[in-house]
Amino acid sequence: xxxxxxxxxxxxxxxxxxxxxxxxxxxxxxxxxxxxxxxxxxxxxxxxxxxxxxxxxxxxxxxxxxxxxxxxxxxxxxxxxxxxxxxxxxxxxxxxxxxxxxxxxxxxxxxxxxxxxxxxxxxxxxxxxxxxxxxxxxxxxxxxxxxxxxxxxxxxxxxxxxxxxxxxxxxxxxxxxxxxxxxxxxxxxxxxxxxxxxxxxxxxxxxxxxxxxxxxxxxxxxxxxxxxxxxxxxxxxxxxxxxxxxxxxxxxxxx
Length: 255
Prior knowledge:
Number of helices: 4
Mean pLDDT: 78
Shape: rod-shaped
Strand content: 35-45%
Order of helices and strands: EHEEEEHHEEEEEEEHEE
């Protein structure tokens, strides 16, 4: 039987006797230093478990083994050593499973990342203008801008958003679309301004929501103010500086 994996040596050095074979196998760590005779070796892989003999070498890193019908094959000694482990096949399957799991995890993450984004915190700082006491050659006072203050940048406090449904109020600012990496069509969205939670009264600023069929029935226009019940979450709108999303608005009233 001819095996597809066979790599036949073009030339190799055959062992002169068993003593030479023992010495080389010990050098390759295929036998312990205390071994006085060789042992049976097996070639494993691709569902096979074939008995073989180590008959020589091509170089220090290439052993030559022989199967039945005098079929010879070149193999790295360390690889042959791994094959002698009783659980060799199980290790290979486990390694393949781990590789598959890793690839699947990356795919899931890639699906999530374009859709999700952390809430943003906007650094705020104001330019400072000062009137210089210096005068030019015409003795007129000079008003000049100084560089931005070197003070530490401040950050807007992060809103503590309620987890349950709440009543809100918002004004339609814009209708737009954003790309959807997993669809041929862009997603329709509504951007709101003057967004606030009614109880307890909390100013949100700007937020966005999907332009759902429910909203389309209301035939909203820019400038319309609506009240509704919903959940609000920290989720940035793709390619827009809007940090909060309105989920599943219901009981919507215009005006």
